[in-house]
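Students often ask what a holo structure prediction actually looks like on paper. The answer is less mysterious than it sounds. You provide the chain, you provide the ligand, and the output is a string of discrete structure tokens encoding the 3D arrangement of the protein together with glyoxylic acid.
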Amino acid sequence: MKPKVYITRRIPEPGISLIEQSCDVILHPHDEPPTHEEIMDHIRDKDALLCLLSDRIDREIIEAGPNLKVISTFSVGFEHIDVAAATRKGIYIGYTPGILTEATADLAFSLLLGTARRITEGDRFLRGHGWKTAFSPSLLLGTSVWGTTLGIVGLGRIGKAVARRARGFNMEVLYTKRNPLPRDEETNLGVEYRSLEELFEQSDFVSLHTPLTDETRHLVNGARLRLMKPTAVLINTARGPVVDEAALVRALQEKWIAGAGLDVFEKEPIDPTNPLLHLDNVVLLPHLGSATTQARSKMATVSARNLLAVLHGEAPPCWLNQEVEKIRPLTRTKML
Ligand code: GLV
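The corresponding structure tokens follow.
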């Protein structure tokens, strides 16, 4: 009998066709995520689940799937999965680290440049027929990027990729991280360690690249925003809840800081009443960090390979919870 797989959204090819070659697939047919109840219903007889970061895979779902051997997420973030509960049940978890690093760093830098140089405001101004004078010396003045100071919060894969881009803009790059890098790696990357508070005080741009955990939830709060320069810009391509959004709105409205470039929000999709939508000094994107054809297609391939590897009784190429092997050895996940 073929393994049974539930896929919660149509992901780019070749993801689904790779799985369909050897498994019976039920694919959630809509772009809207399935409800919690729908996932619960589908998981009951499934051997494998391929999910997205917007699907909450909690203990209840994990316990509703007695045959479940692998959860493969089409994301690098995994805060939507109860990893401890899955591991306890011997369920392998695959994810997609490394693949979307450069795409996300490109997007963080686009937001940095776009906010500094008021790109979307200029576009709105022109399309709104506001451009009446050929060249106006003080029209939509932005702020320099070249030679300024960038503070990176969380210098993991994506943070480092942003640091490399910043060097091309002659920026001084500061970083903060729970465990500072060895000195030679700092020198190679051209970055200097600062405490979180120092980094907020000294940077012209602060870019967030930390995962969402209990410690990082609302890491950027009112007190920290108050430390920033009034000319500074906050960039968030990490996770919305890393920032206290109400405090950020206040900081932007009251000009404690100059602007923000945001790809992620506390609630996604954003509410139509969100006050950020009425501010001009922000650039807002609908969670597009990894949204390139190349990155998404590779993410689809890796998430399919992670899932299939476990069903073959093999280690998934990008494996999050290696400790699970003690609970269920790979020899006991083999169905293919
Ligand atoms: C994107 O946000 C991801 O975690 O893949």
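The pocket of glyoxylic acid is lined by residues 53, 75-77, 100, 289-290 (CB under 6 Å).
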